[in-house]
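Please discuss these two lines.
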Amino acid sequence: MAGMDIAVTGLGLVTPGGIGVGPSWAAVCDGRPAAALDPVLANNPVRISCRVPDFDPESLLSARRAHRLDRFVQFALVAAHEAVADAGLDPTTWDGARVGVVLGCADGGPGTVEEQHHVLREQGADRVSPLLLPMQLPNMLAGQTAIEFGATGPNLVVATACASGATAIGTARDLLALGRCDVVLAGGSEAMITPLVMAGFAQMGALSRREDDPASASRPFDADRDGFVAGEGAGILVMERVVDARARGAHVHGRIIGYGATADAHHMTSPHPDGAGIEAAVRAALADAGADPDEVQHVNAHGTSTPLNDLAEARMIHRTLQGDPLVTSTKGVTGHLLGAAGAVEAAFTLLSIEHETVPPTAGLCIPDPRIDVKLAQSVTSMPIDLALSNSCGFGGQNTALAIAPA
């Protein structure tokens, strides 16, 4: 499989920057932070989040369909519809047996669980919805997407914490390279901004507490960063073999040319302090792509705005990538989309290559003096022949995607 290039022919996004690729891309290029005080978290230790604006599932999906889906699945279906349309594919005519779905999420549907637990406590067991399990199970992310599009090929949900979306894209690449599918809908979706989940993150000390200025709370690589801001949304890619995409005259946004996945085997939540795990993933992705580290021109970093993660990743980039690539983190705008982050950021990396534009690292005021990498502090125009999109997750999960132009 080494050296097998996979084309991305469709992109779909639902992010705190907006619904759709256009609004989401404009938001990150403009450096417009989405973080704000969240009324749902009014009684929580931390009340900041990055919500998808003006998301009305009943207007974007049928009312009956939306009612039977948790928010994380709703996001995925909206993004998938955009991606499939962008790819110029018609699900009513494709061979569903040759279409796979590989999506990532970290937690499934905690909103449904919390809502129905409240029903259980207040009204009793006989009032709990029969839709509880079908709505909240993580595998329903791929299952419902398959139902929506008649995709009867391989159907998988990947859970590698905050690397899930990127791992799903890498897994989809492997399925295509092995000939198991001709088309794969790949990416991730997450809707974890609930009182219980956010209380858990707050108690861990993982979240920014900059409530006096929420818009500046997510500040990757900044000297004064104090934690991440939770976001929500979805990113879906339509992936095909390059030869198939060219044969049907499809527009190709870019190519996934390398994939690496590793484990730190270090700590339950903290990254390896010198970034050894993500370095191994980066080196594996570059080896898979047949590229040298000094060829990388741009890195869309994991860059969560947490003190330990940003420092470890930056040390790795400085040590491993000798070509002085331009580094950005789009989490300054979107916050951390958790299991969807890697997919959304892979899409942003593809758009950076296609439009020859690197978005700024929003929220970055004074770079941490311990971080010795070239950070994008303003929108930058530049041709990009090779980029990396990095993702890391609790449990020491690491995924790197090597991405090249069409």
User: Anything to note?
Assistant: The chain has a mean pLDDT of 96.
